[in-house]
Design a protein that fits this description.
Number of helices: 15
Largest sheet: 9 strands, antiparallel
Oligomer: single chain
Strand order of the largest sheet: 27-28-29-30-39-36-35-32-33
Helix content: 10-25%
Structural class: alpha+beta
Number of strands: 51
């Protein structure tokens, strides 16, 4: 056998941007490290350094050292410093597919400000890899990847062909020994030659005649300044059997070992092992799956920010008139940097988690600002007695929105209106002396008073009464009111007389109104003409029903769900509380006898009686152990605390799914609480889970082999399907398919909370080695923290595709927006009374849909982008979650070109209605720029 005669050393650092220290502590270390690195590179022309594949490290450095930009750019141009292509080294399962696209977009943009980016999908330390990553990389023209964790045991070479479900392929360089495999070679002075030859002999079977890869670096490591001198001395020593040492970047290595592939030869990967889909094997590295369930509110914040940004972009692109691209760039940057594999994962210290949550809030606030601005513009197109509903999804839908009705008893309401809560009528009642009456003028702004609009006022001998409402009626003459007020003041020279000041709102009711609205479209809502569907919801003391589904609550607070096709899910929504002796990385089971499965008390209340929406609240009280036993880590304490869980189940007219909200304040430490959804089948082989633009089939057991038990808890971002049930989720979640201990049917167990007090424990029952330092993280116990989880159960004897799980998941995730009209005068919009009209407002609502999907393909992104000519154009991205080709069946005005993810045109003038989208494909289209005079709904 010919042994490799060369070792390529790749100096690098793996820079966890935040982890056991918050971001700015690590950034200070980063800045000093890069300061030294630039000196080293300039003093050693042959030195190469890979800055971890994430441009955020450079951004962080230059924010503190802006005067060093030219030196950094020069090092990049010389090929000594490799940066990008990602903005951040993400956790691939705790963000949405679109977020990964934006990660690459932002990373490439940031890198290219300095020079050419590294054309390598460098993913050294992710906790597994998403099935669609090869397609996402190829969409940006990146043909290579490099990773460590998750690769199955059968891969025995240093590279393999990694294939996405649609067939997109990248060459993957496998860091079988981790991203610091060369550290030991340089650890003992004077022994480099012998250690290199020994390592070469150990790994020769993986490399054949190709150079061996030696990754020289680790977490937060500084580059060895004397590396080139050490290498030159080793090479100069010569001798039989010596291995030549070369220094290069990670990209330089893969170009060296795969020149034909680099040159574009699609057949150059023949002979390599082929791996299809996601990489979640524990064979040679820990996957640390407990990160999916720790600090669950962080996962909710991520999903909320993603969803809100997506909705804001869609509504802004379709109906806005302003340029908000800079705002979106800022928001996406904050969101993407939060996806780092030690950030949204929640496996850092409390200070890190707090910073991440703050960034995600900032991103969501930007989105809210854009939505409010856009809806204000829309509101100006209709009068205050009506509302406008905006549907951000590509699917035409039956929208259910809540509005406030004025004096509904005097209105003849349509059948599509369901009255809910009455709102207070008395907004203010106080006594003032005459000398205090002028305070009223300070409280009135135009015609606004206490967030409402003054429609009438009356002085009597007893005082003054204001009649206010959300919509204006007639005119309000402030001058006339002021004149009368001054006359009343003048009539009491002593100023001692008392006056009763009342602010009375019109009788108001919150109302739920149903309206049909097209894909990415607007609909005017008039409560006097709104009509119901022919599938109303009926509500009993413990039941909800429409023609498609019936839900019945039993004496234990569990629910039987019956679908029209005969599917019955019994004992659904049962809660199971178990002890957890693990840490933020891995669940640690304790004695199963301590599990709590039955409540002590159950109360069922009817919240809404239909016909548009029915709701029941199930309040269950449990006594759960307060914590682990202080003396026996495999047992829970005898002391218990009360756990009160409110579960609201909801059924809407015409829907085949049961919506669920589980809400509680966590009272206990060291435990895991899960909700079970039965599958109506047993001994299932596995599950199907949607996330990151793909549906992945998973078995009941993971592949082990390393020092970590392959617990089959998995991530889901859209839905999970097993047996006859689809569980649609609204946040990044952890699930497991478990055997039923009562009915015998398997169930999907969705984790609601997992509370532990250590970042990593040195001795773990399911993991051989620590995952990090043994730091206390009291915030991860979530004591006193409110946890709210919303999801839906879609029962069906058919599979997830046939039941429309992808479509229903999208409708569940993206609720419509609604706004009261403001044309002709001020109105209360977004809870604030303001002036009517808005800049750029249209005289009438735009007709028709901007982008409507007729089939089962999901519109994932709609936004305004800049094309190659610098024009603002509309971009739409679609995903076919099914494993078979589907018609796109999209209605949209204009001329559309098909592009890759980077915006390069692949096909001109595509007919979106007739286009066929391949299995598991991500497809992007851009509408040709049009003149302002010819513009249709949707800017650009």
């Amino acid at each position: 056998m010919n042994l490799p005669d060369e070792l390529v050393i790749v100096p690098h650092t793996h820079w966890d941007r935040e982890w056991y220290e918050p971001h700015d502590v690590f950034r200070l270390r980063l800045v000093h490290m890069v300061d030294r690195l630039l000196d080293t590179l300039e003093q050693n022309p042959g030195y190469r350094f890979t800055l971890d594949g994430q441009a955020a490290a450079v951004d962080d450095y230059l924010e503190m050292r802006p005067e060093q930009r030219a030196r950094v750019a020069a090092a990049v141009e010389r090929g000594q410093l490799a940066v990008g292509p990602f903005l951040i080294l993400l956790d691939e399962f705790l963000c949405d597919g679109e977020t990964i696209v934006r990660n690459l977009e932002l990373g490439l943009r940031s890198s290219r400000r300095l020079g050419p980016e590294m054309r390598l999908g460098y993913l050294p330390d992710m906790f597994g890899h998403s099935a669609q990553m090869p397609q996402l990389l190829r969409g940006f023209g990146v043909r290579d990847a490099m990773m460590w964790r998750g690769v199955p045991a059968r891969v025995d070479a240093h590279a393999f062909a990694w294939v996405a479900p649609d067939g997109s392929t990248v060459r993957a360089e496998y860091l079988m020994d981790g991203y610091g495999n060369a550290l030991d070679l340089f650890a003992l002075p004077g022994q480099l030659d012998g250690l290199v030859r020994e390592y070469r002999d150990q790994v020769a079977s993986r490399y054949g005649h190709e150079p061996v890869l030696g990754m020289l670096g680790t977490d937060h490591s500084a580059p060895p300044a004397d590396l080139m001198q050490v290498v030159e001395a080793a090479n100069a020593a010569g001798g039989d059997g010596r291995v030549a040492l070369t220094v290069d970047t990670a990209e330089g290595y893969v170009r060296r070992v795969a020149p034909e592939w680099t040159a574009g030869d699609e057949g150059a990967l023949a002979g390599l092992p082929v791996v299809e889909g996601e990489l979640r094997s524990h064979a040679r590295g820990n996957l640390l799956p407990g990160v999916f369930s720790i600090r669950t509110n962080l996962k909710q914040a991520m999903a909320d920010a993603e969803r809100r940004l997506s909705i804001a972009e869609r509504l802004d692109a379709a109906f806005g008139s302003d340029d908000h691209r800079a705002f979106f760039d800022t928001a996406w940057y904050r969101l993407v940097e939060s996806t780092a594999h030690d950030s949204v994962t929640g496996c850092g210290v409390d200070a890190t988690a707090n910073e991440v949550e703050g960034r995600l809030s900032t991103a969501a606030h930007v989105a809210r600002g854009v939505v409010l601005r856009t809806m204000e513009r829309i509101a100006a197109s209709t009068t205050p007695d009506r509302h406008v509903v905006a549907n951000p999804t590509g699917f035409a839908r039956r929208a259910h929105v809540e509005i406030r009705l004025h004096d509904p008893a005097r209105l003849e309401l349509g059948s599509g209106v369901q009255l809910l809560d009455a709102l207070p009528e008395l907004l203010g009642d106080e006594t003032m002396t005459t000398r205090e009456l002028r305070k009223l003028l300070a409280r009135i702004h135009g015609r606004e008073l206490f967030g409402q609009l003054i429609n009438d006022w009356t002085f009597t001998d007893a005082g003054v009464r204001f009649q206010v409402a959300e919509a204006p009626v007639g005119d309000f003459d402030l001058a006339a009111f002021t004149e009368e007020l001054e006359r009343r003041i003048a009539s009491d020279p002593s100023g001692e007389r008392t006056w009763r000041v009342e602010i009375i709102a019109d009788p108001r009711r919150v109302a739920l109104v149903g309206v049909d609205v097209g894909g990415v479209a607007l609909a005017e809502l008039d409560p006097t003409t709104a009509t119901a569907t022919d599938d109303p919801v009926t509500v009993g003391d413990r039941t909800l029903a429409n023609r498609q589904l019936t839900a019945t609550v039993d004496e234990h607070g569990n629910v039987t769900i019956e679908a029209a096709d005969g599917t019955v899910l019994r004992d659904a929504l049962r809660l199971v509380d178990e002890g957890d002796r693990g840490d933020s990385y891995n669940y640690g089971p304790v004695a199963s006898a301590s599990a709590v499965t039955d409540p002590d008390e159950v109360e069922v209340s009817v919240l809404e009686v239909g016909p548009l929406r029915g709701r029941l609240r199930v309040r269950r009280r449990y006594a759960v152990p307060a914590r682990l036993d202080a003396r026996d880590p495999d047992a829970r304490s005898e002391a218990s605390v009360p756990l009160v869980v409110d579960t609201v189940i909801e059924l809407r007219e015409g829907e085949p799914m049961l919506r669920v909200e589980v809400d509680f304040v966590n009272p206990a430490a060291d435990h895991r609480l899960r909700v079970l959804v039965p599958t109506a089948e047993h001994e299932l082989p596995g599950s199907s889970a949607a996330g990151q633009y793909v549906v992945t089939e998973r078995g009941r057991e993971g592949e082990g082999g390393w020092g970590e038990f392959p617990l089959p808890t998995y991530p889901a971002a859209r839905f999970v399907h097993a047996g006859r049930a689809s569980l649609l989720v609204t946040k990044h979640s952890e699930y497991e398919v478990v055997a039923g201990d009562r009915s015998g049917d398997d169930a999907i167990a969705l984790t609601l909370v997992r509370a532990v007090g250590m970042m990593s424990v040195n001795v773990h029952p399911l993991r051989d080695e620590p995952a990090g330092g043994q730091f206390e993280v009291p915030g991860a116990q979530y004591l006193g923290t409110r946890v709210r989880t919303t999801f839906a159960v879609l029962p069906s004897a058919a599979g997830w595709a046939e039941s429309g799980a992808a479509r229903w998941a999208e409708l569940l995730r993206s609720e419509p927006e609604v706004v009261r009209g403001t044309r002709g005068g001020p109105a209360v919009v977004g809870g604030v009374a303001g002036a009517g009209g808005a800049a750029g407002a249209a005289d009438d609502l735009p007709d028709g849909s901007v982008v409507e999907v007729g089939g089962d393909v999901v519109l994932e992104s709609l936004r305004t982008v800049t094309d190659a000519a610098g024009a603002a154009v509309l971009e739409a991205r679609f995903v076919n979650y099914r494993g078979a080709a589907q018609p796109l069946a999209v209605r949209a005005d204009g001329v559309w070109d098909r592009t890759d993810l980077a915006g390069e045109v692949l096909e001109h003038e595509v007919d979106l209605s007739a286009f066929e989208i391949g299995p598991s494909r991500i497809e992007t289209f851009r509408r040709r720029a049009v003149s302002t005079d010819d513009a249709t709904p949707g800017r650009g």
